[in-house]
Structures are given as structure tokens and as C-alpha cells.
Amino acid sequence: MTLTENSGIFGHSAAPVPGPLPCCWVGIYMTTELKVGDWVTSYHQGIWQIYRILQYTEKDPLSGLPSPHTTIFSKRFVSSKFKRSFSQECCHPTFVEKLNPEILAKLETFIEQNAKLHRLFTEYKPKTIDSIYNARIGIPKGKTAEEIETLFPKERTFTIFEIEPFLRSLGFDTEELPSWTAQFVSKGHVCQDGYLVYKFHRIMEF
């Protein structure tokens, strides 16, 4: 998995920008289960190792209200058959579990017998994983996607709570159907002051 995607297409209008949750907020998965360096199973098959745990304030997809969120970033060492399978992904903690003692013991033996492969894995740098937010806009009459894109400042940053109010300030209806999509990207899940930071990326005609 090379990106995570949030969609405002089926959500409610954005709530006023809330204050971020305390940076010291720690969810149940952090306190009882997962930490950087753990060997785990993840969303896709294989044996993974956690290399980043990111906590931030997200918009609840149903209520539109601020909600604490944790994303687990892992890199894969081997497949379920213990074959080299380097990769990376991120997902919600509910998809991640620490290896049971039997599999962990088997992994430790495998590492002892395959020190070179483990060294290569330790040196392996995961690719950047982006977060994508797709927001609905009513189809502009008499305008092309390219013309609409010129309205968006390329370097301005937005939190997830600021995107839809910005779109409405430009005169777009964020509830209209049929619609186009305004796509915003947080490169590498950049987080500032407790929020992911997004920049406008493109207009898609669907």
C-alpha cells in the first residue's frame, strides 16, 4: 500500500477548525500493544516491522467532527513463506498484530541463519507514503479542469478541516451531484501541530 486515502465525497461539511488534540495523546494500541521496532502482521500478508507510528487529529467520516487517529507504518521483511519480500505500507492499528511467540521464535531463527538478508532489510529505506484527500466540487459550467486548477494556490497548505471551507470560498458547491473531484495530497504524511498538512494536487473529472 503506497498511500492512504480520505474522501470527503460522502462526508458532511467540514466543522470549524478545532484545536488539535494534545500531542501527548496515546491510544490504546500504543499503551498495550504496538511500538516502533515490533515485528507484526499487517494489512497485507507477510512479516512486517513497524518503523513509524503517527498520531494526529482526523475528521470522522460520518460526523465530520475531530477524532484522534493513529497510523502505523511498517516495512515488510519476508512473505508468509519466509521469502524476501521488501515493501512498505501504512494502515490503522486494528489491522496490525504482534507476532505470536511461535512465529516470532521462527523468525528469530531465520534471522540468525540469514544475517545478510536481515542486514539488507535493516538498511532498506521505505518509499514515501502519501495521504490523499478527495473533495467533491460541483461541475463548473463552461470551465475545463485545467482552468479550474489555476484557481488553486500550489504552495498553500491546508488541514483536512480547512479544505472544504476553502472550496466554498471559491464558489464551489461541495454537496452537488454529479461532481468532479479536487484532490489534495499530504506528501509523506507531513504532520504539523497535530494535523496532516495537505496541498492541492489536481482536478479529476469524476
Structural features, described:
The protein has 2 domains: 19-123, SH3 type barrels (Roll); 130-204, no CATH class. It contains 5 helices and 11 strands. It has helices spanning 28-32, 101-113, 115-123, 145-149, 163-169, and strands spanning 3-7, 39-41, 47-59, 66-78, 84-91, 97-98, 130-138, 179-186, 191-192, 195-196, 199-204. It has a 5-stranded antiparallel beta sheet, with helices on one face. Strands 1-7-8-11 form a 4-stranded mixed beta sheet. The protein has a two-stranded antiparallel sheet with strand order 9-10.
Write a concise keyword list for the protein shown above.
206 residues, alpha+beta, SH3 type barrels, 2 domains, 4-stranded mixed β-sheet, 19% helix, elongated
In percent, how much strand structure appears in the residues? 25-35%
Helix content: 10-25%
Structural category is alpha+beta
Mean residue pLDDT: 86
Summarize the structure.
This protein has 206 residues and is of the alpha+beta class. It has helices spanning 28-32, 101-113, 115-123, 145-149, 163-169, and strands at residues 3-7, 39-41, 47-59, 66-78, 84-91, 97-98, 130-138, 179-186, 191-192, 195-196, 199-204. It has two domains: 19-123, SH3 type barrels (Roll), CATH 2.30.30; 130-204, no CATH class.
